[in-house]
Amino acid sequence: MPDLGNFGANPFVAACINKMIDPVFVAACKNKMIERLPTPGVKTDPEDTEIQNLRKALQEATAALVIAEKRRDVLEKALEKSVELQSHYAWLLNTYDGGKRMQFKTAQSWIDRLNKLAQEGADNA
Q1: Rounded Cα–Cα distance for residues 106 and 82 (Å)
Q2: Could you tell me the pTM of the whole model?
Q3: How many helices and strands, by DSSP H and E, does the chain display?
Q4: Is residue 80 a contact partner of residue 106, using CB atoms and an 8 Å limit?
Q5: Is residue 106 packed enough to be buried (19+ CB in 10 Å), middle (13-18) or exposed (0-12)?
Q6: Lowest mean pLDDT among 48-57, 58-67, 84-93
Q7: What is the domain partition of the chain in residue ranges?
Q8: What residues have CB less than 8 Å from 53, skipping those under 6 apart?
């Protein structure tokens, strides 16, 4: 999986990727579950609605994480293909007009370039 960095040059892309797995949601679920866990050694009523709610919240959180991981995988594959197509197009245009358009071998190299541009922009500000 590529390191997505902070995408400082493109806040929209950063926001999309960071929302894939919402850390606030995950942390809230964990905290809620920890608070509601029964004391070790104490038997609980299987009909206890609090425990049932805990199980349901855990199932929903797990399902949300699985979906988020699948979406992230799809986005990573789409980004790889997009970078591949952009690089081929740059090569075609460079061949045609002798230009010096950048070509990237991987999505990670494209991300690294974005982060470098963002850092240069921050240094010049």
Answers
A1: 10
A2: 0.53
A3: 4, 0
A4: yes
A5: middle
A6: 48-57
A7: 11-124
A8: 36
